[in-house]
Amino acid sequence: MSEAAFTVEMPRQRRTGVVFASPHSGSSYSERFLAQSILGAGQIRSSEDAFVDQLFACAPHYGAPLLCAKAPRAYLDLNRAPDELDPALIVGVPRRGQNPRIASGLGVIPRVVAHGRAIYRGKLPLEEAQARINRFWHPYHEQLRRMMEQAAQDFGVAILIDCHSMPHEAVTDFRQGAGPRPDVVLGDRFGASASADIVDRIEAAFVAAGLKVARNTPFAGAYIAQTYGRPSRNHHAVQVEIDRALYMDEADVRPNANFHAFQALLGGVVADLVELGRECRDMAAE
């Protein structure tokens, strides 16, 4: 695994207060980590947001920065708080009040991947967990924080598009009465992490591309949306979950025949979202 915690692609000219980030598309699996795990190379990638960084790679072309994690989600989850340590996995971590994410094995150092499959045979030392957090978690979030603050300073608004993917089965059984099965789920923590006007515009960009959109069900946003979304300060954060079946073969973790067409489709969405950041800047200046 590379020591680099992230990559940042900056536009030649920054034109918007929108920041794109992909915290779960990291795919740098070290030999040591793979040797620690009891999972095969394909299984360990099942919780990875594979290729999401490629889907949004055009953002700098349109004038917005793109931040992408290097460490894979199975190794370290950047969408969790650094103190969400799992006592069932980490030696020396005391059991505290009930946290459903930790209880299900999905703390900052995950114990399981998709379908509850255990990653390790035994436990990890606390020192190793802390080393991972120091090496990858803190640098990523320090960079994201700087990018949001710079956006607000330069454009009067910071809008984080937190880019994710979801297993197709997550929306296969979309609850009756909630509308058609969505292609995209927008999470704004039920209005707490972004203003309604901005979420409306983000939804409109996906709908204009022919995609079906739901809000907050089954994903409302986690640590990143909660932490970086401060609408009262004109900092907005929206978690975007895209159905993996639209662009990849989930079983083999590879792009499917529709990948390039879908990537091009998303290019139009990205262009619209960048324009949203420009419009917000202009309104702030009036």
Structural notes for this entry:
By secondary structure, the chain is an alpha/beta fold. It has helices spanning about 30-35, 50-55, 60, 100-105, 125-155, 170, 195-210, 225-230, 260-285; strands at about 5-10, 20, 65-70, 160-165, 185, 215, 235-245, 250, 255. Strand 8 and strand 9 form a beta hairpin. The termini are far apart.
Give the % helix: 25-40%
Shape: globular
Radius of gyration: 18 Å
Report the uncertain regions: none
Number of helices: 9
* SSE string: EEHHHEHHEHEHEHEEEH
Order of the strands making up the biggest sheet: 1-3-2-4-7-5-6
> Beta fraction of the residues?
5-15%
Structural class: alpha/beta
Cα separation of the termini:
48 Å
Largest sheet: 7 strands, mixed
Topology, number of strands: 9
Mean pLDDT equals 93
Question: Can I get a quick summary?
Answer:
By secondary structure, the chain is of the alpha/beta class.
Present the secondary structure layout.
Elements lengths: L5 E4 L8 E5 L8 H6 L15 H4 L3 H4 L3 E4 L30 H4 L22 H30 L2 E9 L2 H4 L11 E4 L8 H13 L4 E3 L7 H6 L6 E9 L4 E2 L4 E2 L3 H27 L1
Q: What descriptors fit this protein?
A:
286 residues, alpha/beta, seven-stranded mixed β-sheet, two-stranded antiparallel sheet, 9 helices, 9 strands, globular
